[in-house]
Amino acid sequence: MFLGTAVGFDENFKKLRLLYLTKFVILITMRLNKQQIEYFAFSIVKTLIKNDIILVDDREEFLRDIQMIITKELEKEDLLDEKVKEILQDKIEDIRNSNIDYYEMFKMVKSKLAKEENIIL
Questions:
Q1: Which letter does DSSP use for residue 3 in this model?
Q2: List of residues 6+ apart from 69 with CB closer than 8 A
Q3: Which of 14, 20, 64, 85 is deepest in the core (most CB within 10 A)?
Q4: Contacts for 41 with CB less than 8 Å, ≥ 6 apart
Q5: Do the beta carbons of residue 6 and residue 57 sit within 8 Å?
Q6: What is the pLDDT along the chain (121 residues), one digit of tens a residue?
C-alpha cells in the first residue's frame, strides 16, 4: 500500500495533503541532508499516526515513501537551480553591465520558473 489507509479521505486527497505537508516541511527547513530527511519523515509519520489522521499497514514502508517524496521534491528544486544558472549564464554580461545583483536576478528567475513548472519553493 503506497500511502496507507486514510481515515475518511480518498486516495487523491491523501496524496495531495501529504505532498503539501512534505513541501511545508521543506519550505521551513530549506536544504536538508539525508539524516534531516529521515528525521522529518519520521516526525511526519509519527504525528499523522499519533493524531489518527491515517492508518498504515506497514509503518516502515510508509516512512520510506515519505522520505522518497521529500527527496524528490528537493531534487526538483536542484534541477530548477541548474536551469536558472544556465539561463543566467547566457545573460551574464548583460547582468554585469546593468549593475543588476546576480543573486536577486537568480531569485526572480527561479521564482518565475517555479511558478511555471508548479514547483513550490
A1: S
A2: 18, 19, 22
A3: 14
A4: 63, 66, 67, 70
A5: no
A6: 334 444 444 454 444 455 444 444 444 445 778 899 999 899 999 999 999 888 889 999 999 999 999 898 888 888 999 999 999 988 888 888 888 888 889 999 999 999 998 887 7
